[in-house]
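Journal club side-thread
Mid-discussion, someone asked how the predicted structure for our own chain would compare to the paper's figures. Pasting it here so we can look after the session.
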Amino acid sequence: MQYFMYFCSEKVSLSMRNCVLVLVSLLFMACTGQEKERVAPWKTTETDDNVFDLDEIQQSGELIALTLSGPETYYTMRGKELGLHFLLCQRFANEMGTRLRMETCRDTAEMIARLKAGDADLIAFPLTGDSTQLGWRIGEGKEALAEALDGWYKPAMREEVALEERRLLAQPRVRRKVFAPMLGHGVISHYDALFRRYAKACGWDWRLMAAQCYQESTFDAKAVSWAGAKGLMQIMPTTADHLGLARGDMFDPELNVAAASRLIVELTRAFSDIRDRQEQRCFVLASYNAGQGHIRDAMRLARRDGKNAQRWTDVRGYVLRLSQPEYYRDSLVTCGYMRGEETAEYVDMIMQRYKKYIRSAK
């Protein structure tokens, strides 16, 4: 009957007489026990319809992997995706000629359930008893994918990728040129006029924006970070897209500062629940550095523990704690692991320099 309904609801070009003939034929087969293969009227069997193995993944152009947040699995830093298992999975996706979509789960039970439901192609996380060399689990019926993964992977890759990540994190965030924090005589930089103009647009003291710019790029309009952030205010390419800054204009001083001002306005609105303006600016700076999701995670943890979630000095401690499993795996946390040391230092350094600029520049 389901085939008859399919034919009629989809308006297949058969006459009513032919529809009746199909229905009668199916009923006859059911009564006589001859529906062994359950062959559909369009002459394809149902047995392998849902198999989405290597060829189909490559045709779709996307490999979907599940993992848990953590320093060795997957995390983001300054808009850059990192973690040993993520980087290995990214290499494998590159080898297959597909992009990688990495999705994080709460725990291993959720990963396994989602893989079984067909939501992903593999689990990029070491699970006990799994057959792949990496300890990853492959979706059911994806034998070609499992074979390709084991054929590609070599044990030496693990250390290669780990070393690559360590080198990346050890290098300065920006290759800094040596620029003085002030030019003297009340002049902070060659870009003071831009800071005055665009700080006013976002409701900031221009000297705070100058202090942030020094922390970001030391006033180097051509600065590029290891993560791909560019220009005076170190805008990431995807953030530039969101802010309407053309990627070809990211090194333009005025356009870069103007885009940063728009981002500061967005973040200020996002933290409008923080009434104290001085406190609010610390939260905005932290979010500019790490993303507001991580900062909201820290705020929820602080509130849970009876701290003042609207005071940066209280929340700062939880930004640091989000590098510890008992915190980044907490049910209140939505964005997982973060390297909080950089974010805490980022805010500290900017606010210290801002105080100096207040005394030195009017």
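Post-session note: Residues 219 and 298 are 30 Å apart (CA to CA).
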